[in-house]
């Protein structure tokens, strides 16, 4: 956390909430005291900022004393101070990794260059150091402090946030806080109080009557501010051993409130893990600080910690899994004039997307390009995209990546596409089925780890690979693909020519036209798959749900957004998962409710991009229909009870207006089969984003829990216009932990809001 702030990671003897004067005004990240890389950033140095071949300017960069903000000079008179926070950074990449550096610098500058990539749509920062060693030092130091910030636990992040707000409120930097600065601080942390109450707090803490708070007085103010009444109530109910929780008290809490199958050993383990007071730990007791620490860690989170790593059976056939999938992956924005970029692929892959789309067209220079055809979207070279995919495909997940080709190229440029994929992807590219005999089913994600699978047209059946007499000399191969009818730009469907080299690397995902479920059952091999426009897919899900589910037991299905979604909006993916569709492709570049649901669906199982479908979507004997509540193993009636208790440190939405404070409300949504879909919300609370409290109870009837997703939404209430999103979080109902739990909050784009969260009580009861 900060220097002298008692760390919950290291579990020092001092309490985690104890603050000193130095902790407020001379912060150093936990574990980095005296660190050479941190000192390097604090000292700063000159770098070359690069925007074009001709715009290359020297700028001084340094980490500010809060150890959270990077400052750099600007020559513009109206922009003297330019800053961005460590939290704004998505990644730091060494070398000419950005499109700008590749375009505006020479290859011999590779070792000198690095880029800072930001969350959201903020442009990346391309920089060049004086030497390769200096560039490496910047990258190493920045990555170290970024990782340090990300590895803080929830309690530390909240304390860190409050302390930084205190520093900002100290306008004259005298390490004290007068009444005016205290009022400014309260607005900073999203609390609106009247002058009388502010003066009352101030007088209560100003024991020296000096007219300003300092040292122990600031600590007193901090303790008053961060006091959690709701935690006091819960703790006192179970702390029966001289005002503290004994191991037996903690076990009772775990059994009665958290509904865990806990043992005395589990209670001892939690005390050893989270208790910050050594004397209490020796007595096998848990103080209130240790209890709060437990609630802020994974064991006290809403997401079952057993579901965070890969925990599902990954040896099932590939089509037995939902697969995180992207549509028009190359786009950063809309589908009419938005930019195409390798960065879009990197971002999708780093979010564990396992199926990306490549819309391929002939390039003017003889090299195939990727862009949204017949539009003003920019173009990116196919070769560059494949290189980026190779470098980033398996950084967050080892499981296979499907490259979905939408091929509009001439035969000659198709040959180049095949050449680039074979030469760049190498042994990771699947060019023949696993094993020595013709397969009858898909291999598993486990068997395909680290592999790329090409989805596209194929000239012949897969068994031709194993049949010597069916091998046709390339010179005599017809490049006319009889199954490949392409509808281009709204024109009549036409046949397309297909290069043998490209055809030969299509193994488990051969694209074929859909002629109906019966035709597919009787005529299609397991590796022959169809893509469905959303309107067609939703129609089939409504009229033939059980047939659709059985189709997906044998084959893969890909669903994609309608072409009319020119703004790159998304359709609801849940009805498609309900009928067992695996590749439900969404516009990853568009932050939306639909993407929140997608992030929630793939949150558990190691966030690896693959989630095993329920048994009733895999068993041939199943007659499951999501629109019908007929009895079956899928019907497990439950009542989901949710008590929304409080929220902590919600961010200000309008940071430009000092007096703008949010009026938060919480909505709880269930997304699943039609009978389970529901939404309920709390009342809004006036002018309090710091510690609003609702204590409102909701209950939901759940019929098919294995398909249900729970989404928490926090909004800023507005009586005259649409509410603004403050934060959200989504996860499968089957991954929810019962009892008192903290819920992290994410931005609209899916990034963690470090300091913010909800506190709830959850119960899932089987219906009689």
UniProtKB/TrEMBL annotation:
It is a peripheral membrane protein. It is found in: Cytoplasm; Membrane. Glycans are attached at residue 208. Residues 618-747 form the C2 domain. It catalyses: a 1,2-diacyl-sn-glycero-3-phospho-(1D-myo-inositol-4,5-bisphosphate) + H2O = 1D-myo-inositol 1,4,5-trisphosphate + a 1,2-diacyl-sn-glycerol + H(+). Residues 502-618 form the PI-PLC Y-box domain. InterPro entries: C2_dom, C2_domain_sf, EF-hand-dom_pair, EF_Hand_1_Ca_BS, EF_hand_dom, PH-like_dom_sf, PH_domain, PI-PLC_fam. Its cofactor is Ca(2+). Its EC number is 3.1.4.11. Ca(2+) 3 binds at residues 328, 357, 359, 406. Keywords: Calcium, Cytoplasm, Glycoprotein, Hydrolase, Lipid degradation, Lipid metabolism, Membrane, Metal-binding, Repeat, Transducer. Ca(2+) 5 binds at residues 716-718. It comes from the Eukaryota. Residues 40-147 form the PH domain. Substrate binds at residues 49-76, 455, 457, 531, 558. Binds 3 Ca(2+) ions per subunit. Two of the Ca(2+) ions are bound to the C2 domain. Ca(2+) 4 binds at residues 661, 663, 687. Residues 157-192, 193-228 form the EF-hand domain. SUPFAM superfamilies: C2 domain (Calcium/lipid-binding domain, CaLB), EF-hand, PH domain-like, PLC-like phosphodiesterases. The active site is at residues 327, 372. One of its GO terms (cellular component) is cytoplasm. This is Phosphoinositide phospholipase C. It comes from Salarias fasciatus.
């Amino acid at each position: 956390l900060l220097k002298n702030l008692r760390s919950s990671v290291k579990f020092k003897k001092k309490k985690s909430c104890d603050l000193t004067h130095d902790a407020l005004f001379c912060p150093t990240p936990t574990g980095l005291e005296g660190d050479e890389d941190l000192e390097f950033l604090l000292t700063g140095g000159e770098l070359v900022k690069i925007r074009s071949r001709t715009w290359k300017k020297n700028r001084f960069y340094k980490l500010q004393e809060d150890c959270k903000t990077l400052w750099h000079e600007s020559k513009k008179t109206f922009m003297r101070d330019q800053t961005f926070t460590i939290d704004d950074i998505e990644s730091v990449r060494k070398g000419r990794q950005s499109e700008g550096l590749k375009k505006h610098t020479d290859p011999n500058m590779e070792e000198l260059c690095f880029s800072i990539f930001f969350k959201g749509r903020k442009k990346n920062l391309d920089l060049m150091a004086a030497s390769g060693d200096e560039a490496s030092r910047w990258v190493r130091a920045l990555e170290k402090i970024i990782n340090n910030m990300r590895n803080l636990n929830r309690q530390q992040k909240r304390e860190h946030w409050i302390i930084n707000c205190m520093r900002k409120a100290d306008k004259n930097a005298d390490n004290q806080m007068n009444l005016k600065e205290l009022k400014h601080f309260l607005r900073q942390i999203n609390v609106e109080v009247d002058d009388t109450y502010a003066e009352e707090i101030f007088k209560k803490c100003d024991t020296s009557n000096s007219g300003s708070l300092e040292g122990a007085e600031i600590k007193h103010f901090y303790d008053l501010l961060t006091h959690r009444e709701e935690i006091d109530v819960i703790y006192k109910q179970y702390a029966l051993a001289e005002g503290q929780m004994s191991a037996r008290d903690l076990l009772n809490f775990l059994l009665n409130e958290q509904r865990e199958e806990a043992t005395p050993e589990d209670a001892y383990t939690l005390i050893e893990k989270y208790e910050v007071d050594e004397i209490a730990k020796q007595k096998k007791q848990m103080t209130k600080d240790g209890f709060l620490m437990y609630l802020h860690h994974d064991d006290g989170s809403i997401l079952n910690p057993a579901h965070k790593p890969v925990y599902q059976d990954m040896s099932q056939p590939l089509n037995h899994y939902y697969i995180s999938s992207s549509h028009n992956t190359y786009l950063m924005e809309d589908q009419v004039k938005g930019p195409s970029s390798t960065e879009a692929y990197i971002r999708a892959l780093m979010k564990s997307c396992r199926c990306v789309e490549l819309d391929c067209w002939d390039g003017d220079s003889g090299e195939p390009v990727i862009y949204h055809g017949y539009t003003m979207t920019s173009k990116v070279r196919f070769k560059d995209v494949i290189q980026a995919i190779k470098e980033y495909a398996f950084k967050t997940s080892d499981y296979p990546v499907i490259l979905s080709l939408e091929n509009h190229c001439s035969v000659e440029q198709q040959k180049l596409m095949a050449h680039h994929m074979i030469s760049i992807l190498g042994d990771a590219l699947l060019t023949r089925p696993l094993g020595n005999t013709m397969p009858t089913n898909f291999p598993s994600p486990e068997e395909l780890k680290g592999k790329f699978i090409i989805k596209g047209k194929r000239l012949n059946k897969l068994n031709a690979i194993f049949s010597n007499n069916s091998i046709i000399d390339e010179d005599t191969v017809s490049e006319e693909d009889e199954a490949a009818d392409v509808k281009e730009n709204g024109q009549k469907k036409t046949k397309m020519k297909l290069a043998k080299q490209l055809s030969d690397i299509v193994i488990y995902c051969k694209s074929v036209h859909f002629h109906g479920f019966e035709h597919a059952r009787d005529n299609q091999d397991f590796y022959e798959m169809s893509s469905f426009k959303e309107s067609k897919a939703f129609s089939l899900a409504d009229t033939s749900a059980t047939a659709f589910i059985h189709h997906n037991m044998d084959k893969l299905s890909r669903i994609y957004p309608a072409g009319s979604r020119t703004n790159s909006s998304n359709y609801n993916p849940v009805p498609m998962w309900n009928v067992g569709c695996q590749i439900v492709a969404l516009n990853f570049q568009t932050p939306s409710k639909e993407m929140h649901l997608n992030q929630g669906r793939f949150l558990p199982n190691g966030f690896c991009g693959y989630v095993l479908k329920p048994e009733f979507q895999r068993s041939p004997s199943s007659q499951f229909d999501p629109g019908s509540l007929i009895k079956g193993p899928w019907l497990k009636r439950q009542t989901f009870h949710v008590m929304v208790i409080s929220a902590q440190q919600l961010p200000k939405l309008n940071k430009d207006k000092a007096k703008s404070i949010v009026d938060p409300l919480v909505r709880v949504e269930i997304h699943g089969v039609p009978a389970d879909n529901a939404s309920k919300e709390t009342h809004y609370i006036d002018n309090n984003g710091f510690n609003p409290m609702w204590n409102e109870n909701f209950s939901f009837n759940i019929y098919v829990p294995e398909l249900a997703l729970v989404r928490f939404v926090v909004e800023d209430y507005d009586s005259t216009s649409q509410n603004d999103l403050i934060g959200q979080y989504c996860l499968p109902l089957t991954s929810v932990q019962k009892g008192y739990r903290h819920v992290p909050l994410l931005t609209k784009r899916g990034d963690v809001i470090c300091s913010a969260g909800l506190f709830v009580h959850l119960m899932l009861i089987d219906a009689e």
